[in-house]
Amino acid sequence: MTELKGKIALVTGGSRGAGRGIALELAKAGAYVYVTGRHDNLNDVVKEMEQSGGAGAALRCDHTEDRETEETVRRILQEQGRLDILVNNVWGGNDLKIENKPFWELETDHWKNMFDAGVRAQLMTNHFAIPLMRKSPQGGLIVHTTFWDDDKYIGHFYYDLAKNALVRMAYGLSIELAGDGIAVIPLSPGWMRTELVLESMNTDEDHWQEVEDLRNSESTAYIGRAVRAMAADPEIMSRTGVPQQVGRLAETYGFTDIDGRRVPVFKVPE
User: Is residue 205 part of a domain?
Assistant: First the structure.
């Protein structure tokens, strides 16, 4: 499938987890994908893209450093002259344990992890990348990976605040970029089998079915297929600014996870 052939994409935080899954799916669809991150395995992601017939480049970037983010966008400008798809996925919010405690008992460093290395990092990527995206007469797509379940409280004060800040960021940008034909989508996955999740449960991608708590989980390719479908949708502006859930997009666009399942939308426990 080459429905995105000729498109230029940037996926931040693309070395693992959702970012990796999204980068690989966009490359499979024909986009040239830049992946950024702080980890040494970025080149492995590019190799995997190439093995599946795609192409891209690894750019080491700490998105908490504005200078590095600006340089990343400058390089894309120099090499490509435009940017069609931006996936804001960088997230530093899991450096501290996510504990089920009331706000006043939580470490205040959660703010630094989730806002400085998460919300602000995505905001500054937008700041530098949007002028480049606006150069394209064909519009574009910005995706913020977040979590959203019909405005329900997620259960961890800082996590809830940060994820909803990303939803609101996307909404504001959707209004400001409507005239440019750039759709801005806050995208919520379900219970993802990221590398960290698998490691925490002492399993791997080949044996996750043996773990009861992962029975309704989804691969990182599932959210990748959601982004891929939206990027190829000529009517995507009808969704701009509106939170989207991967499970519902699977029903709309007709894609499945890598095991052939259509994983339902993840709901916050009542």
Answer: yes
CA angle 130, 17, 46 (to 5 degrees): 70
b/e map 3-22, b = 16+ CB within 10 Å: ebeebbbbbbbbbbbbbbbb
Domains identified in the chain, total number? 1
How far is it, in rounded angstroms, from Cα 113 to Cα 173? Answer: 23
Q: Which residues of the chain have pLDDT under 50?
A: none
| Per-residue confidence (pLDDT) for residue 96, from 0 to 100 | 72
The two structure tokens encoding residue 2: 């080459």
Compute φ and ψ for 192, nearest 5 degrees.
-90, 140
Residues in CB range of 254: below 8 A, 6 or more apart:
none
Q: Show the CA angle centred on residue 227, arms to residues 225 and 231, nearest 5°.
A: 115
Q: What DSSP element (H or E) covers 184?
A: strand 182-188
Q: Give which of 126, 124, 197, 110 is closest to 162, Cα–Cα.
A: 110
pLDDT at 1: 67
Check residue 189 and give its pLDDT.
95
CATH number of the domain within which 167 lies: 3.40.50.720
Quote helix, strand, coil % in the chain, to nearest 5.
45, 15, 40
Catalytic residues, which ones?
A: 159
Number of residues in the chain: 270
Any domain includes 189: yes
Residue 221's contacts (CB-CB under 8 Å, 6 or more residues apart) are: 21, 24, 25, 257, 258
Cβ-based burial of 73 (10 A; exposed 0-12, middle 13-18, buried ≥19): buried
